[in-house]
Amino acid sequence: MKKIEIEKNIKITNNDALLVIDMQYDFIPGGALPVEGGDLIINDINSIAKKFKQSSEYIVFTQDWHPLGHLSFASSHPGKNPGDEYQTQNGAIGPILWPDHCVQGTLGAEFHKSLNTRLASAIIRKGTNPNVDSYSAFLENDKKTETGLAGYLKSTRIERIYICGLALDYCCYFSAMDAVDFGFETYFLLGLSKGINLPTGNIDRAIENMVKKGIKFVNAESF
In the predicted model, what is the mean pLDDT of the chain? Predict the structure, then answer.
């Protein structure tokens, strides 16, 4: 994979929004679906969110919010285990099955206590349909059902979106790709996201696809 170019000297304006993806207990080490190092980016996310708050009103947190027995859970498929390949014909579930995680009303679905949620202008919950998963903050995996995030951002005249959180190669990646399709100039905070890398090589593939899509990359020092 070729070296990623990091954008510099970014000036945050009120046409910018920060999107913080799924910083929930089940994705933090010790949770049901832990992302290695997921806890190590919380303080830096808080810091960048404070910078955004000084110049922009729009900081959006997303929250995986699955009902019990969600079809993406391996436990919903007798004989299947987390990580097993599974894909529905319409793409609503897959490409793999997950352990039960971020079940509505459980501790695992809550934001980590160290995350400064007071800075949020909106919280978008996704994955609420028991038969459809939702990696992207914009569009569920059936590629038809919108979460409402695009409408919210367009109504507030947002032009640029900056994405961070968990996990790099799933919910952050799909959110970034869909952001471009919805017409937003999209930046990915590479140092403020950690990946699962399942299947092996998934992080590299995600980054390469984002480069091809025209997504730009920034880090905490870019502002």
Answer: 96
DSSP collapsed to 3 states, 98-117:
ECCCCECCCHHHCECCCCCH
Q: Is the peptide bond before 95 cis (omega within 30 degrees of 0)?
A: yes
Task: With cut-offs at 50, 70 and 90, classify the pLDDT of residue 198.
Answer: confident
CB atoms within 10 A of CB 217: 17
Q: 1 pLDDT exceeds 80?
A: no
Strand partners, 64: 126
Helices (H), the chain: 42-55, 149-155, 173-181, 202-213
User: Does the structure show a pLDDT above 70 at 77?
Assistant: yes
Nearest to 179 by CA among 162, 191, 157: 162
Q: Which residues are catalytic?
A: 22, 126, 171
Give the pTM. Answer: 0.96
Residue 53 Cα to chain centre, angstroms? 20
Domains belonging to the chain, first-starting first, are 16-222 (3.40.50.850)
Q: How confident is the model at residue 33 (pLDDT cuts 50, 70, 90)?
A: very high
